[in-house]
Amino acid sequence: MPSHSFVAIPVPSAKENPHPTPSLLRAALSRGGSVCFALMLGSSLTGCAVGPDYAGPPRLNLPSHWSTKAASRRDAGTLDRWWLRLRDPLLNRLIEEAVEANPSVAKAKAVVREARATVQQTGAGLFPSVSGTASGTNNKTSSGSASAIADSAPYTLHQGSFDSSWELDLFGGTQRSIEAAVRGEQSAEEDLRDSLVTLIGDVAAYYVEARGYQARIALAERTSVSQRDTEKLTRSKYDAGSGNAVDLAKATAQAASTEANVPTYQAALAADIHRLGILLGRPPNGVAALLAKSAPVPAPRMPLPTGLPADLLMSRPDIASAERKLAQVTAKIGAAEADRYPAVSLTGSVGTSAMRVGDLAKYSSVSWSVGPSVTVPVFDAGKRLATVRIAEAQRDQAFATFHSTLLTALEDVENALVSLAQERVRASKLTEAATNYREAAKLSRSLFETGSASFIDVLDAERSLYSAEDSLIQSKVAAAKDYISLAKALGGGWTDPVDVSRPIIVDTNTGPHLREVQK
């Protein structure tokens, strides 16, 4: 797009003159409008502008570093393809497919195409519009008397004309609209990137949850087998007369209680698999076969580069989108303000008429007209001024949204950092607890078999071991999900170029054709 020069024109306040009039036009020209007019005559792509100029992202007070980390401009590594740090080939495959087939991403791509078409549509306002017409009519004239009607003969008149009009962007209204459209396109592109960040994080989180439930199912089944063995041992002692019915009932109840967890986990696993299928644009059971075989819960080893809080302005697409929307509505104020000023247009028309089609280019009657026109808003009961005030209020709303989005992003990162750090501490303690409970269960069972320990000791040791191992699996899942949440909070996502040019629906037979009757 060619560069543009802008000359600021002082905009009158509502108290000065809420409705520009011819006197305002003269005042505007005397204070700078004459410069604009001269520029317009010198170059049709150069003009003036009214309304506020966007000065870039608002400067807000941001912390110098994260509360859980020392200040560092950039940690080692980048957020590019952060999910590779989870080291799970199937997860990588699912994410690749989700990026291509997810309906929400497809919708975001369509929004980008719409925004780009809007830029093209708005930019056309800088250029003249030309239209051509042609007609052939049968005519007959008379003076109104009976004899004249009898004597007149019909004739055919062929006519052709070209009409053009060009509204000069004297006060930059079209330029401001183009600014708004371009910034809207940029916002749509950031929204697409935000959709990818959310999608990738969701796929990874549901995948981790699914693997966690598979591990918990396997643990419950493995533990219940051990508890059924304890039940058999207790029954043998009871049959031999060295046990009692209370111990046997407790052993049976504990095994049944553990087995009862399996259906609950199976239902939760199915729900996660169904959600993964939907995220990949498949039916709910579309990925069930891929997850039929259990695999370990992904455990990242490398830390994520957190950078500084100020980096979120560039890395978080939702913040970038909110900032572009703020820039967009700022430009709309100028477009609304320009509508309060006079509009200057150049119009022209060339027409020819002849009795025969072949004579249109040589033996014909030719007429033409060309000249400027000026439209001056005199009175509209404050409608145009209200439009400016609406745009200003929308700008304030966009700023508040930007500020809120930034604060929420800071909160997301801080929460994820704290959760991840504390979950790792918890996991280490649970690992220690599970190791010791495993040893205690082994010893208590051996002592019970020899009659050196009571059944209560065995029951308590097995129950505690199962609880510790199940909690450890949940902690591993939570740590992986906190890692994913941190990557999302930092704005990590898809970095490869995304093709948005391909529509979802490709229309055919769009030229002239017989219309089909809709059923």
From TrEMBL:
Record-linked SUPFAM superfamilies: Outer membrane efflux proteins (OEP)
Organism of this sequence: Bradyrhizobium arachidis
Any GO molecular function: efflux transmembrane transporter activity
Lipoprotein as UniProt keyword: yes
Keyword annotations: Lipoprotein, Membrane, Palmitate, Transmembrane, Transmembrane beta strand
Listed InterPro entries: MdtP/NodT-like (IPR010131), OMP_efflux (IPR003423)
Topological category with respect to the lipid bilayer: Lipid-anchor
Similarity comment: family membership: Belongs to the outer membrane factor (OMF) (TC 1.B.17) family.
Pfam families: OEP
Cellular component terms (Gene Ontology): plasma membrane
Spans annotated as Disordered: 1-20, 128-147
Positions with biased composition (Polar residues): 130-141
Protein name, per record: RND transporter
Keyword Transmembrane: yes
Subcellular location per the Swiss-Prot or TrEMBL entry: Cell membrane
